[in-house]
Amino acid sequence: MVNPQKITNNQISDITNLIAQVLQIPEYMVTDQLSYRSIMQWDSLAHINLMLALETTYGVTIEPDTIVTLSSVAQIKAYMQGTLQPTSTHTAGIETQTDGGVVYRGLAGVTFDQSQITLIDGKQGRLQYRGYSIHDLVEQTTFEETAFLLLNGQLPTTTELDQFKHQLVAAREIPATILELIQLLKDGHPTEVLRTCLSALATFDAERLDGSVTATKARSIRLIAQMPCLIAAHHAIRQGKTPIQPNPTLDHAANFLYMLQGTIPSQQAQQIVNQILILHADHSANASTFAARVVAGTRSDWYAALTAAIAAFAGPLHGGAIEQVIAMIQAIGTPERAADYVANLQANNQPVMGFGHRVYQTEDPRARHLRKAAQALSAQSDNNYYAILEAVVQAMRPYMAKGIDVNVDFYASVIYHLLGIPYDLFVPAFIVGRTVGWLAQIQEQYANNILIRPLLAYVGPIDQPYPALSQRQ
């Protein structure tokens, strides 16, 4: 805690200047009312940069629990004077008081419903599907078992698992008309082609509005089974090749790699992809899941909800970030350049790709499994990408101590690269795993539906006199 006698009025004035410099905004904007995330410049990375600047300038240590509560200029000043020891009553930094009430920008920290699917404990770094630890699932189960668990709420018996696998294999065939559509769209980005083809699949489901248990299970199985086949078919067609037919002897993960590359993958590759699909299967109410639930909440069909999820997921602030990690690694070039590269980004309040998460205040629990896989694959390659990642981790240590830690994208991108998957297929490959989670979330929304309709606080002009066209300037 700061000794208030050491912080003079002049130093408090200096804090205003420091905030302006760190956020790279004019000093007149730094009012006591200015709050975290109320402007684009004060995002999560800039917030950590600001805390580090305060520590360096004033010789103090601001603990992670305190960082998240210093959510306005007024709070920062009071804390530095020793007159305020903040306590968190909500997710800090997203509350803005207006005449119409409190606004929570980005809905951060807002709980909009209850769920029995996925538990995330951001403070402790815990992730569970249906009450089972992600660590147990990724180390002891297959993707098919995890998919069954997410869809049905319980792990399958041997008989149930065999039947589920058989149903997935039998549902892989893509309608010929969809293959023709892929041919027309062959030059598009794989994620855009996948999104369009998924929407088109609705026209082949005469029972797409049937919400019965039987129809729901059959539809979910088809969508899980066909998603990797759509991706692989487009990848072949854009290269002028005939799509490879699914191999009925291979499981979901192995068949995906086989259809992409034309050869039976190694046992190591099969195991790693199986683990990645489990790790990517669900992550509660992220942006894409929320988009899917909003659409499902209107009672639109499954295909519409899933298409919305993919559209949201592709954004660079969500799943699309995985492509940017590889671009960062290539820009760095060698491990020796990592520290300078990171320092330059930090100086300009630009994010280091693969770090930070809206929920986790510690390392993403999925990262340790991905790190292990990336290291194992790198040991068999002369590629220096993993070494660059580790150098970036070292450069990011001060930020990791403040809660900006490694996320799921950081190591996954290198794994995909070392497995021979093209960069523009990273997002679609992630979607192969996430599809089952979206389906479980959509199913849960339908089962206890309510229209999701938040509010916007209007802050524009009111009661303006209407001028005739001839009187307008």
Automatic annotation (TrEMBL):
<dbReference type="InterPro" id="IPR009081">
    <property type="entry name" value="PP-bd_ACP"/>
</dbReference>
<comment type="pathway">
    <text>Carbohydrate metabolism; tricarboxylic acid cycle.</text>
</comment>
<dbReference type="InterPro" id="IPR016142">
    <property type="entry name" value="Citrate_synth-like_lrg_a-sub"/>
</dbReference>
<dbReference type="InterPro" id="IPR019810">
    <property type="entry name" value="Citrate_synthase_AS"/>
</dbReference>
<dbReference type="InterPro" id="IPR036969">
    <property type="entry name" value="Citrate_synthase_sf"/>
</dbReference>
<comment type="similarity">
    <text>Belongs to the citrate synthase family.</text>
</comment>
<dbReference type="GO" id="GO:0036440">
    <property type="term" value="F:citrate synthase activity"/>
</dbReference>
<dbReference type="GO" id="GO:0006099">
    <property type="term" value="P:tricarboxylic acid cycle"/>
</dbReference>
<dbReference type="Pfam" id="PF00285">
    <property type="entry name" value="Citrate_synt"/>
</dbReference>
<dbReference type="InterPro" id="IPR016143">
    <property type="entry name" value="Citrate_synth-like_sm_a-sub"/>
</dbReference>
<dbReference type="InterPro" id="IPR002020">
    <property type="entry name" value="Citrate_synthase"/>
</dbReference>
<keyword id="KW-0808">Transferase</keyword>
<keyword id="KW-0012">Acyltransferase</keyword>
<dbReference type="InterPro" id="IPR036736">
    <property type="entry name" value="ACP-like_sf"/>
</dbReference>
<dbReference type="GO" id="GO:0005975">
    <property type="term" value="P:carbohydrate metabolic process"/>
</dbReference>
<feature type="domain" description="Carrier">
    <location>
        <begin position="6"/>
        <end position="84"/>
    </location>
</feature>
<protein>
    <recommendedName>
        <fullName>citrate synthase (unknown stereospecificity)</fullName>
        <ecNumber>2.3.3.16</ecNumber>
    </recommendedName>
</protein>
<dbReference type="Pfam" id="PF00550">
    <property type="entry name" value="PP-binding"/>
</dbReference>
